[in-house]
Fold this protein.
Amino acid sequence: MEKTLAIPGAFYGQLKAGANISFTLEHNQLSRQVADKTQVWQTESMVESLQSLYWSQELNFEAFSYLLEQSCEQRGLVIPQVSEHEFEQMLASITQLSTQWQSLAAGQSITLAF
């Protein structure tokens, strides 16, 4: 999602800048500089919206747009513009990553490129 929408200041951008992945997301100087709280919460709103769609098995753009709008409004955020094409790209990426993850044997890993 962050890659598809070129969002530099959310979770993966912070990891790329060297933040330590943990439940507290421990930052270094560079990862603090790239962190953007608006982008972080907009991205979280998109993640929540996609999770809801997967749980309900209603993977359509209109439902995503509605859930994203509701989530952002509840947080007092500007709603990020996501096209239907970008939505489809995000679904394809999630599906591909899920397939790779499910095919891993115990002890194997996946390397993500930023």
Observations:
- Helices lie at 11-16, 29-34, 37-56, 61-75, 84-102.
- The first helix runs from residue 11 to 16.
- The mean pLDDT is 84.
- DSSP finds five helices and no strands in the chain.
